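As a warm-up, study this chain.
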Amino acid sequence: MGQNTLRLGVNIDHVATVRNARGGDNPDPVRAALLAQNAGADGITAHLREDRRHIVDADIDGLMAALRIPLNFEMAATPEMLAIALRHKPHAVCLVPEKREERTTEGGLDVAGNDNALADYIAPLRDAGSRVSMFIGAEKSQVEASHRIGAPVIELHAGAYADAWAEGRWDERDAELAKITEMAAYASGLGLEVHVGHGLTYESVGPIAALPQVKELNIGHFLMGEAMFVGLPAALAEMRRKMDEARNG
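Now compare it with the structure written out below.
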């Protein structure tokens, strides 16, 4: 993979959401992950929430056993989740905020306000061989705090940008894109690897994919929804085409 190539991580959480709507085994998130792997995904993302509302422990077992590409394990910063991550030793662990009442991850992690506590999670995960990232808003204080506690990677929350795009709030969209652009450059200058995720679609992915400091996008909900109509390989191929087109101009 070339230095300028943008990686695509595919989040398969919402395959599990559909499965869990009526119980049973179908559709299987591991099968979706393997389809994505065979279609050219660079990694698979799965969020094991404390309430197990979509991905469950057995899914992580299955993903670790089946995948040939990296697993990015999203988790809250809790002792329970740390123990699970240390048992599995995934390629990457992304620490995310989590509230039981939210429908999805609503914002970034407050690293600046919890840096001492969060720092305790980095060393054991790093020692286990996992790359640790912080899922944060595009704010200078959060970028600096992530760097200060030794996280090698940040993932910038694109939700506000994506929502503004979807709702036609163009001034807000442009303001959010400007913040992501500025913080991607700032974080890269500090030596952090920069990822972006949450809410991106075919329409909104281009300006983010064009940012040279961004090394990886994590996209799930839109791809899983689109896959219901065209199939996952076709949905992934179109997202990859959009990303590459934006990246290579």
